[in-house]
Amino acid sequence: MFKPESQYWTTGFDSFGYCFFQCLLLRADGEMVLFTRSPDLRQAQQTSVIEEIRIWVDRADAEPARELVDLLREKGLAGRRLGVEWETHGLTAANGKRLEIALEGFAETVDASLLVSRLRLVKSPAELAYVRRAAELADRALEAAIAHARPGADEGVILARMHDAVFEGGGDYPANPFIIGSGEKALLCRYASGRRRLDPTDQLTLEFAGTYRQYHACLMRTLLLGEIDPAHRAMFEACRDALLACEERMRPGATMGEVFAAHADTFDARGYGPHRLNACGYSLGATYAPSWMDWPMFYAGNPVEMAPGMVFFLHMILADSESGRAMSLGRTSLVTERGAEPLSKAPLTLEPAA
Hints:
By secondary structure, the chain is α+β, with helices and mostly antiparallel strands.
C-alpha cells in the first residue's frame, strides 16, 4: 500500500513521509511490514500498530524499489498475486516505473488502488465521531471569518482567525490550503498566493475544512460586503436551491450521478449552465496532502451508489467571468437511512458579512 490514507486507516500510521518511497506490506494473513526511511521509524512506532519496520538507507545509489522486492521475496511472495496502489500521490510516476521494472517477472500484479478506498467509504461510529467534531470546528472557522470580514479587513487576518478556531479546538492541519479570494479572485476554486484588503463593496469566497484526527468536514461560502445587488442574490438563491436538491437525492441506493444531475438541472434551468462546474462534490474522510478530496466524486453518470455511513461534501459554485460575480455554497453531509444529514449548524442565508 502506497496511499497514506490506506496506511493510516489500517494501522494508524500518521506521517507525511509518503513524499518519499514508502510502502506498507499487508498480507492476507494480517502480517504487516512498513518499508520506509529512518525519519519515519519512531513516527510509526508512536502512531501505529505496526511492529515490523524496515528501513531503506538514503544514499546516491539507493534503489528502494528493488529493496522492496527483496523484502517481498523474503516474505515468500515470489510468484504470488500482489495488489498495488498505483493511483496515489504516495507513489510518484518515477517511483512507479522503478517498481514496475523491479517487479517484472517476480509476481503477478493487479491494480488495487481502490481496494481500501472502497472500504473507507462507509465510516464506523468512531470515525463519525471524528467527522462530527471536524464539522464543529468548520462551523467555528466560519463564525470567525464572518466576524472579521469587514471593509478594510486583511485577507491574511481572516485566514489566521479561521485557522485559530480549528487549532484552538484541537484540530489538525487540513490536507490542502484553505481557499480564500476576494474581488476578482473570488471566482477562483484554488488557493493562490497574495493578499488584499476588502473593499466596502466586495465578495469573499471561502472554501475550508475543519480537520480532526485527519478527518475532514468542509464548508464553502461567498460572503458579500455592502449592499447586495439583485444579480448576486439570484445567484445565491440558485446555489441554495441546487444544494437542497442535491441533498434530497443523497439517499441510500441512489447514484452519485443522480446527485450531480440535480445540481446541473437546477443551475441550467435558470441559465447558469455556462457558469457552473462539471462536478459538485466528493467523498470526505481521513486524507493527506495535497488534497482533502477523496474518492469518489459527483459528476455526470457516476454509477457509484451511496449507502448509510458515507460522508460527502457538496459544493455549489457559480463563477460569472463576464460580470465578475461569484457565488458559492457548500456543506458536508452524512448519508443515513433517511437521507442526508447536514453536519453543519450554520444557516443557508445570504446576509452582508459586516
